Amino acid sequence: MKYYHTNSDFLWGVATAANQVEGGWNEDGKGMSIADCLRYRPNIDSKDYKSINTIDSQEIKCAISDPSTKNWAKRHGVNFYHNYRDDIKQLAETGIKAFRFSISWARIFPNGDDLEPNQAGLDYYLNVVKELKKYNIQPIMTLSHYEMPLNLVLNYDSWYDRRIVDYFERFAKTVIDYLHDYVKYWIPINEIDSIIRHPFSSAGLVEDRFPNQNFENVIYQAMHNQFVASAKIVKYCHDNYSDLQVGCMITRTMVYPYNSDPKNVLKATETMRDVYAFSDIQARGSYPKFLLKELKNKNIKLNIKKEDLELLKEGTADFIAFSYYSSVCTAYDTKGLKVTKANRTVGVYNKYLEESQWGWQIDPVGLRLSLIDLYDRYQKPLFIVENGLGAEDKLTCDGKVHDDYRISYLNDHIKEMLISIQDDGIELMGYCIWGTTDMISASSNQMSKRYGLIYVDLDDNGNGSYRRFKKDSYYWYQNLLSYGSEIPVSLFNGEAIEQRKISI
Question: Is the pTM of this model over 0.90?
Fold first, then answer.
């Protein structure tokens, strides 16, 4: 029998974010965050992510004035805040070794600029990581995952304001000092490049708060400040806790030319350079020349201090973490071409690929290509910290969810990952399915776009019992992990999937 091999310490896991699962949005001293201002909008196409997540000052006032959770889905999440013990127990039974989640900044420093942390928030996360340790599960901790305290938007200029670097550093050091005995792997900022696509949910930037300014300049300055903050956290861990590892994290979308027209190949190359620009800064410790040239051509001027450049060199990431869901094509002239989307990235439809219900094209080979490209570029350990399929799942009358489409997606992507480890020489630390239980979608703020291995009885309007039901994909993943570091190749062919479906 032929096998795929992984190291015995390979981190098979699952992933989520506080703002999408926790709930308890105003409990135990937690402050209001930017995620609490994002509402479910049934009157807008759920694929129109830009319209859904474009927030102005009036929308923020509306959010502040409404204390309910009815329309504000991320305020109630799926009640992980009160249900974390049961959720972790169920997920531990799959055999996972890693659980990636995030800290809600506003649960630790409710206003962001507080002098002292909220002890109840610290103790909550201590209890979570202790629960994970009970099952020998490694926490993968993200410090900032779309949950900035709202006060830093209202009374500062969000990440555009240099003072936010200091406030974030205080928050991060507080959490690291409190949890370092339990958490080895840290990610300062989730998908740091996402600020380009959704500046509010990523960094609290509201365009109408910057009148008479070039908003693109504001975005890039805020991103620079995030780079500095992230480098400070890397350096702090290296100087004080030598056993900790700190990675950067990017959104990885594979980009292909629409066809072999050299102009389209050039367009794809330029787009991929944009994808790499932000991991280059964190992995190599300096701004790539092509990005500096691009900013100059756009007349974007950043306030970069001399000590910032030194910090970036000192605070390079120990590993490259990334999300991967899909791929897109691109063309120099898109007129008349079908448009598709991949994790909020707009591209041209690839006729060789299927697509999800939300229009994301399914490309397992793109994951292998991403692993090769990233490893060849950086020669640093990689970590797939998000990969999964958003779909409408149906709960049967006997409490089952037959999500064959998700099993197929995971099967094909994990197979390409294992081939890449075996044949391409990739140094890969682990793989985390997005998500854990079902959760509120980051892109559409709805519940019906489900990712989890465990179904949560909750609809888009917040109605439901919150009861949990294991999906077929849960049992599929459990079966996969039961093989340990030697996984039969036959497990990934279509026949094996069909047999597994029958046995569930």
Answer: yes
